[in-house]
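Key result, reporting period 2: structure in, sequence out.
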């Protein structure tokens, strides 16, 4: 007989691992239930973490005390900082990872925590008393009792795999679907829907001709995700880029009549921003080629992930089309791509803590909420795990705002607007992205993570040291004078206007194309301080430069965030009957009654609620 737990986490993907890790590190006794102990933190799709906006999320998870950044660093085979040519709000870290090592590192991290127990079985239902969850029902007849339950079922809920005209049940290739849980939740009154995602074929790297492709190397001086002590990469594996062509597209079209995408077999919505190759050539018929990223799956395997070629076409069509791509003429396929349909639960049924509105102490995280992507799942798991712990120990809920973190943007988007297609994070979704940079996630969130008992003291001390070093360098740059004799040769080389009198170093930093490194080359006092700081905290150098260069933009965004926070501070009674407020529009009454926003700020973001509706609400609340 299994003991009673504080928190039961169902599913051991990216969301489940973060949920179990967070709740256990904070002191809860946790049971992690998974259908297969050998696939903990499986990278079901591409072997990579981070990317545009997603890299910021991984940094935020790490800053709070989560595990994804640590595991990503320990299993990385390549590191790149994307969008370096743009402003720092767009800089996004990304790692290529060893698929097997990633899973092993996550399992090792969880096994080091004595508060985590594991159990291999399928969850077929939840146990409730009244409107409160009290445990889970497992397929082999076991009932496990707990004070809170976090469901992170990924693509397994009634998963149906499509490959050409073939269909079969499965949560991913080679693994069975999870049945029973959806029906259990619907019986309790939850609304469910269907979504679709897909994956590309994997091929034998020994059969590819890399000389016909563009090489894509990692950064010359690779950074890392974690602010902790994980090592930066000493060696890296290259990726490659190639392209489809007209012949590829012709071959793909020959299978359209057998494609579940086009013959009606798939009826659910797929990810708009990660379309299948057949979807690409159908929607963008004017494009004569599409980019294909050739990504290694790890240090010790020849298996290659064909990123950009997600498909559910029949195997024979996939094989022929692949061989028409430069470098793939003799490609040997290990396994074909496929599409998968699965159940999800519209996230408007949740509160900001990711607890369901219908059943107390029941939390949803990850693809069950309609998101796509490892990073989106992981950050939801982290927040659900934190809040499950907080709830069972009668502590305050932990909620991040839109101006504090991309995690806050994601959760607010989900529960306020819902989603009818797989939700993916982009920098454009955040209205305060200059504040939410990847370089300052530790300063934004580590003090918060420490305050709830998740981030440790050494992480907090590191943040305080970084802030002090950043401040010292900023002050020095505002004090040190630079003469025309020192600066003008460098300025002319950089095609920047020369100076006619002494100026402060900080004023030169604000110019485009002028960097801290340029000033080190012309000023001895700056050089000495930079060398001193670089020896203990290189991140402080980057931070100081960004803060000086974009000072005006940052201050403006902080003011806007403070103004909007006033609306977030205006709470709304959850029992408010919107139908009784006569001046509200019919659509606003309907949407607000369904969403039950916690604040005026959230109400203003509900789709279909107009500024005049908000004015009516403010008057109703006596404002």
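The corresponding designed sequence is given below.
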């Amino acid at each position: 007989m299994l003991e009673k737990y504080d928190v039961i986490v169902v599913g051991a993907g990216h969301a489940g691992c973060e949920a179990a890790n967070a709740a256990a590190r904070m002191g809860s006794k946790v049971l992690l239930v998974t259908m297969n102990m050998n696939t903990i933190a499986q990278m079901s799709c591409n072997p990579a973490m981070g990317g545009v906006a997603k890299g910021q999320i991984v940094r935020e998870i790490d800053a709070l005390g989560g595990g994804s950044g640590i595991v990503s660093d320990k299993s990385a085979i390549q590191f790149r900082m994307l969008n370096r040519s743009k402003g720092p709000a767009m800089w996004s870290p990304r790692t290529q990872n060893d698929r097997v090592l990633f899973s092993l590192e996550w399992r090792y991290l969880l096994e080091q925590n004595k508060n985590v127990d594991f159990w291999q079985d399928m969850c077929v239902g939840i146990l409730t008393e009244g409107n409160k969850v009290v445990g889970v029902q497992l397929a082999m007849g076991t009932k496990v009792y707990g004070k809170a339950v976090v469901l992170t079922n990924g693509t397994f809920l009634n998963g149906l795999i499509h490959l050409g005209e073939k269909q079969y049940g499965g949560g991913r290739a080679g693994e069975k679907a999870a049945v029973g849980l959806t029906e259990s939740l619907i019986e309790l009154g939850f609304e469910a829907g269907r979504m679709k995602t897909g994956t590309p074929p994997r091929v034998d790297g020994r059969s590819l001709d890399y000389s016909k492709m563009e090489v894509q190397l990692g950064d010359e001086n690779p950074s890392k995700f974690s602010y902790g002590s994980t090592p930066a990469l000493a060696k890296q594996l290259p990726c490659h880029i190639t392209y489809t062509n007209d012949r590829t597209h012709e071959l793909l079209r020959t299978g359209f009549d057998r494609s579940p995408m086009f013959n009606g077999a798939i009826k659910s919505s797929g990810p708009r921003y990660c379309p299948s190759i057949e979807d690409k050539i159908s929607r963008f018929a004017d494009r004569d080629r599409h980019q294909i990223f050739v990504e290694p799956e790890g240090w010790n395997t020849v298996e290659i992930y064909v990123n950009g070629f997600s498909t559910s076409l029949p195997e024979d069509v996939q094989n022929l089309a692949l061989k028409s791509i430069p470098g793939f003429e003799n490609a040997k396929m290990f396994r074909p791509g496929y599409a998968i349909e699965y159940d999800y639960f519209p996230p408007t049924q949740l509160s900001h803590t990711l607890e369901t509105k219908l059943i107390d102490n029941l939390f949803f995280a990850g693809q069950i909420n309609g998101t796509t992507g490892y990073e989106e799942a992981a950050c939801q798991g982290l927040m659900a795990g934190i809040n499950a712990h907080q709830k069972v120990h009668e502590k305050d809920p932990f909620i991040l705002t839109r101006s504090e973190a991309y995690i806050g943007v994601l959760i607010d988007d989900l529960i306020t607007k819902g989603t009818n297609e797989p939700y993916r994070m982009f920098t454009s979704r955040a209205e305060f992205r200059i504040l939410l940079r990847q370089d300052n996630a530790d300063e934004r969130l580590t003090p918060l993570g420490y305050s709830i008992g998740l981030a440790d003291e050494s992480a907090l001390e590191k943040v305080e040291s970084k802030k002090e070093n950043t401040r010292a360098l900023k002050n020095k740059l505002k004090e040190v004078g630079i003469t025309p004799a020192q600066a003008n040769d460098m300025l002319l080389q950089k095609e920047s206007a020369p100076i006619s009198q002494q100026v402060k170093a900080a004023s030169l930093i604000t110019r485009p194309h002028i960097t801290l490194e340029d000033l080190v080359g012309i000023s001895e006092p700056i050089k000495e301080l930079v060398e001193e700081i670089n020896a203990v905290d290189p991140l402080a150098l980057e931070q100081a430069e960004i803060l000086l260069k974009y000072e005006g933009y940052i201050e403006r965004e902080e003011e806007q965030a403070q103004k909007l926070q006033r609306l977030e501070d205006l709470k709304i009674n959850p029992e408010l009957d919107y139908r009784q407020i006569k001046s509200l529009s019919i659509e606003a009454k309907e949407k607000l009654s369904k969403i039950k926003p916690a604040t005026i700020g959230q109400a203003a973001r509900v789709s279909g609620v107009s500024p005049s509706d908000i004015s009516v609400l403010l008057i109703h609340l006596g404002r």
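Residues 473 and 529 are 7 Å apart (CA to CA). The radius of gyration is 26 Å. This case is discussed further under Risks and Mitigation.
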